[in-house]
Design a protein that fits this description.
It contains 11 helices and 13 strands. The protein has helices at residues 9-22, 58-69, 95-102, 121-127, 139-145, 147-155, 185-192, 205-211, 245-248, 263-272, 284-292, and strands at 35-40, 43-49, 78-83, 106-111, 132-135, 159-166, 200-204, 230-235, 255-259, 277-282, 298-303, 326-334, 337-344. Strand 1 (35-40) and strand 2 (43-49) form a beta hairpin.
Length: 351
């Protein structure tokens, strides 16, 4: 890959590890996505990423790759890893043991592990075995990879992505007799790709009754190996059509009907199930409740060049008590539609 000349050598190799980690985003829950690169004689001799919970971690994959191709160069090599290596037995043995056994003599770590069981403990173990450890290389970029995991492991609550498609005047429904679609096909495809990052998709009962959505992986997303996210329906009445797609299709066993439950309690239950990230796709009442309860972390809004003059608002004004401000905002045109995204600015200690 081409590196920026502005990056120092450690940062250049860490960038390659980040690119590896991105291959596992959305596939590893309840584990975080992690990438690793092993370097010797100024070249990468092993690459690896964590592909799925229960499978080998990124460090072990990179070690196996190096053993297969450059076994003589592995002893004394440097390991670059986006997240602090694990040091406890879980579904797999500790990565610290594999690093020591491989003869690696230097480990460069991007982000520290927010998991209290692992936080900054790997360094002590490695240094006792004469392995040099460096922390904080591209820590910000590596931390972005584990935003969802960091929230879940420290609060028990899933990371929440809110998505909506609306008209210029903030409506999510069009006048009677018109098409149900507000946004363009390109915008809808882009929005559905957010499902690749989610362990569950949440909608309200009214959305099911009016739109009969499928909430499935489409547009080639299933080919990534991503498991169909859980479909979660929030309903006060429990009146969900028995013949709707969510209750009759091939993924009906991955549909949860949550009747009359507080949204924060729902999130807590999903977190207890090991669901690290959820995507709220509507409607306005559910989105309003999520913002009101300070549950939303990330926002994706798709805006079409329509003025509907009526219909339902994208966020119910009766449940949202105060404005929500975004930071790190990005705006991207999609033909005549616009995609705006950002992260909710809030006191995360209050979550």
């Amino acid at each position: 890959m081409a590196f920026s000349d502005k990056l120092d050598p450690d940062s250049r190799w860490m960038q390659m590890a980040i690119d590896q980690a991105k291959r596992g985003v959305g596939l590893t829950s309840p584990n975080p996505p992690v990438g690793a690169v092993i370097v010797a004689q100024n070249r990468a001799i092993g690459l690896g990423y964590h592909a799925k919970a229960g499978r080998a971690h990124a460090e072990v994959m990179a070690i196996q790759d190096a053993k297969s191709n450059f076994p003589n160069l592995l002893p004394g090599a440097t390991l670059y890893v986006t997240l602090e290596p694990c040091c406890t037995h879980g579904r797999t043995p500790p990565c610290t043991e594999a690093i020591i056994a491989a003869g690696i003599k230097r480990v460069v770590i991007g982000a520290n592990d927010p998991n209290p069981l692992h936080h900054q403990k790997a360094s002590e173990i490695l240094m006792l075995k004469d392995v040099s450890v460096k922390h904080g290389t591209l820590a910000g970029e590596c931390g972005e990879l584990i935003r969802a995991f960091s929230k879940w492991i420290t609060t028990g609550l899933p990371y929440v992505i809110a998505k909506a498609g609306q008209s210029l005047d903030g409506r999510i429904t069009r006048p009677k007799g018109e098409s149900q679609w507000l946004t363009s096909n390109a915008a809808r495809i882009h929005g559905r790709r957010l499902r690749l990052r989610a362990d569950a998709i949440i909608v309200g009962g009214e959305t099911v009754r009016k739109d009969n959505p499928r909430l499935t992986l489409r547009d080639g997303c299933a080919a990534t190996g991503k498991e169909q996210p859980w479909r979660v329906v929030l309903t006060r009445s429990g009146d969900i059509p028995a013949d709707c797609h969510l209750l009759t299709d091939a993924y009906k066993d991955r549909t949860l009907i949550m009747k009359g439950e507080n949204l924060r309690e729902v999130m807590q239950q999903l977190g207890e199930r090991g669901l690290v990230s959820v995507l709220i796709e509507g409607g306005g009442i559910v989105l309003g409740q999520a913002f009101r309860e300070h549950l939303v972390d990330e926002v994706h809004w798709y805006i079409s060049p329509l003025i509907c003059g009526g219909g339902r608002p994208s966020v119910d004004s009766h449940v949202l008590a105060e404005s929500v401000q975004l930071e790190e905002v990005k705006v991207m045109p999609m033909g005549d539609n616009v995609h705006m995204s950002g992260f909710v600015k809030k006191d995360r200690s209050a979550v």
